[in-house]
Specification:
By secondary structure, the protein is α+β, with helices and mostly antiparallel strands. The protein has three helices and five strands, in the order H-H-E-E-E-E-E-H. The protein folds into two domains: about 45 residues; about 55 residues, SH3 type barrels (Roll), CATH 2.30.30. Strand 3 and strand 4 form a beta hairpin. The longest helix is centred in the middle third of the chain and has 35 residues. It is elongated and about 85 Å long.
């Protein structure tokens, strides 16, 4: 006899074991939800960003992840040269490019 739990309660807990299929389906359902709501969309965004970085070319107007707006003047394997103002050029990594901007964006914000 245990002082912390009665014998009747212990016997009741042992007889209330659920269906083993239900015990397996619940974690599998959670894994499926995580996959479709977290893992899959993140992989899709990463693939889109990789394709955008690979397609960068001279003359594109881009916004870096640091918030710098510039026009690409030179593209190398890992770096791009951005003209951010007249005769002001900086070199940044391709992976720091956050998004492509529509043509004419620099002229709109230069004034």
């Amino acid at each position: 006899m245990s002082f912390f739990i009665s014998d009747a309660l212990a016997e009741g807990a042992a007889s209330q074991q659920g269906d083993p299929i239900t015990a397996i389906l619940f974690p599998l359902g959670l894994l499926a939800l995580f996959y479709f709501f977290l893992i899959r969309p993140q992989g899709k965004r990463a693939k889109e960003k990789k394709a955008m970085v690979a397609a960068l070319s001279k003359g594109d107007e881009v916004l870096t992840s640091g918030g710098i707006l510039g026009k690409i003047t030179k593209v190398s394997e890992s770096f791009v040269a951005l003209e951010i103002s007249d005769s002001v050029t900086i070199t940044v990594q391709k992976t720091s490019i956050g998004s492509l901007m529509p043509k004419g964006t620099m002229k709109e914000y230069s004034n």
